[in-house]
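Example: Endoglycosylceramidase.
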Amino acid sequence: MAKMRARLLVLLAVVLVSSSLTSVAGASRAGAADDRLPGALWFDERAAATLTVEDGRFTDGLGREVVLRGYNVSGGTKLDENHGLPFASVADAQKSAAAMRRLGGANTARFLLSWAYAEPVRGRVDERYLAAVTEQLRAFLRAGIRVYPDFHQDLHSRHLFHEDSWYTGDGAPAWAVEQGNYPRESCGVCLFWGQNITQNKAVTRATYDFWHNRGGVQDAFLTTARSVMEYLAEHLTPGEFEGIAGFDPYNEPHAGTYEPGQSSRAWERDVLWPFYEKFRARMDEAGWRDKPAFVEPNLFWNANLDFQRQEGGLLDAGSALGPRYVFNTHFYDQKAISGVFMWGKAKDGQYAGDFATVRDRAADAGTAGIVSEFGHPLAGAVADKAPGVLKGMYQALDSRLPGATWWSRAQDSGRVLSGTQWQWDIYNGRHHELMNGNPDKVLTEGDAWNDEDLSAVRLDDSGAAVLRQDARLLDRLYPSATAGRVLGFTYEDRSRDGATTLTWNPVPASMPRVAELVGTGRYGVLLWRPDGTSAPTELHLPASFDPARTTVVSDLGALHGLPSYEPGTPVAVAPEPGGTGSRRVLLTAQDDDGPGLHVALVTDGATTPSADLLRAARAELTQWAQDRG
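Written out as structure tokens, the predicted fold is:
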């Protein structure tokens, strides 16, 4: 009897252990299933598994060349009203993410974090803040948007500024300021908040102390950064963590004050780059070894005002950047923003040289490049320049060539640059920020921060997210993933400046049938060299492109009206992963031994093109592509 009971107990234990293992396996499978985004196709999971830098370009898990496009989320992190978070709630984060994907065409977000709220007490990380950050960040990942977090600072810290100040800052916590015994802040005669960077003694001294680790303040920041990265790695699911593109260690670095005889280039070499190496080590320790650091040079290295420009660009880091770092910079047209140094509107090719400099510096460093902030004020005296300035910047991200020469020199177009526009703030015009804690200075207008107003989005009276800029400008056709190497890309968005349609890249008269097909519509052209990858090439399709009325002309096929994707379909349309309703054009080559080049034109111009017109346009386009090869 005793032996029988023993056998029964052993059998029961086996059953329980087996049941437990089955439950764990089931939970694991359920977790894996939960990671799969709505709308994902057979290749999407593998593509999303990695984002790496390879041969100077971003590549996904299938080896396709990837372009990151999106927005900064958001300047609300600089404010106190939501306690250093971009959003008041997870629901608002979800609303914002869905709108960013659906209305703004984004596949990437630069997600701002606050050191002040992550470490409000020295040596003690606030896990409630990190938990809220994780849930809000997750909303973007679940919408199919890659994210790279950014420890943001401007003017070092809001705690440097007194309650009656004209300006404010963000970044370092109060304890880091209190230990510095800094003078009462004053910018003197400052017309723009950015002048505080070099003119406000409290800001310059505190910034200097950070870089020189006075009182161990930089060590504390690096420890907190590691804790934040560890928390995200532990609390996101494996599939969600795959959507983290990397980390931006420090926004817009500047020395504060140079040592006697020290140049900006020497400061980058001796102070900034060693900091990035330390941050890179913290990433590795926190489980982020396979993700790049998005490192920024001296913020003035590519200023377009000669008296602001400072030598830099991490020149002395040389090839040390490589695949573990991304060359990450900002660009604002200070001439246009000043209202003095640039009269009139931006024109075709306005920023080709500025953005070519970014491409060249990234290439020389052996890594990918990204312009993680760019934009222009949408209110105030120079707001009328915004349509042309933003069109010019997007044009320069797409190609290093002006529209006037693109068709004749497309093979010199250069890599398509990644970029995230400043900014995406659904609370624009609806803030309730006590500036520097002053109850008598409640900011509601614009971005509620130093009189800025740059958000591409706002909420309407019904609470729905709506664009504040021309949708034709923001929701763009772009090659989000290319099965091979991009040789040239252009997009004529036909965006508007008031009632005027801006056309900077007309189809040349030497291609009359292509011109007839496009008419006055929008169009994009992608020229690429295949590398045998079996997965499709993807182009984001703007929401205003009706697939039933979209025309694609390519060596892979020519058709008006796009069929739904099935494996092997040469030209098709499919949802983008995330369930937001955004769409993509998928171009699939059937053989690895095909032409040396592929080309595709996507347009919403023709309403009902004839078969003859499609054939003639295809012949013109493929001949043009062969001539470029």
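The first strand starts at residue 51 and ends at 54.
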